[in-house]
Amino acid sequence: MGCILVFIYVDDVSGLNGDNAIAVLYAAKKYDLPELVDWCLTFPISKLSNIFLAFDQTRFLGEEAFACCCLEHIDLNADALILSEAFLQSDQKLLCEILDRDELMISEEITIWNAALRWADEKCRQNGKEPSAANRRAMLGPALFKIRFPLISQEDFENIVPSGVLTDAELVSILQHYSRPDRALPKPYQLKFPTNGRAGTNSDTDNSFVSFAANLFP
What we know:
One of its GO terms (biological process) is neurogenesis. The chain is mainly α. Helices cover 54% and strands 0% of the residues.
């Protein structure tokens, strides 16, 4: 890699940028270049081209402090970052980890759903599959159950229903939760989705949603 050769011969890191910083870090550790490693680890996190992959890869490389800084940046800027193209490059395991976080500064949980659906559609495209309800659900896998549907307002939730990604039993369980959150449900209708709020989310239940659910399940 040209950036590494320039550093070795003339001690110049001007070629380090948001696109190559993590790849250079990997190579610097591989070839035992501690000074270059230090330069990479002081690269501004906000300038990394893909903060999600940077988090995942630096953690793999054992650079826990840098990885934690990446994760904090994701938390604080989640509203914008999960709408980015970089988010779509995450694998399913990383998607699960990100969507599972209480610390995400998300203004509305519907943003999580929309981002997850975009991610699923991109994975369908990459795998040559139609973005059908079944394929979207399959691509999301366990990540679907990291989405906090009970925090979503009635108006937004009504727009989710036609996607077909949620089963009838899951829809019933969510509506029942809003109607009577303390009520024990039969096993097929037990709620599978988290109900705790995120750092930036207004978790107050929409009163109209409670009324809507109560009418369905008296």
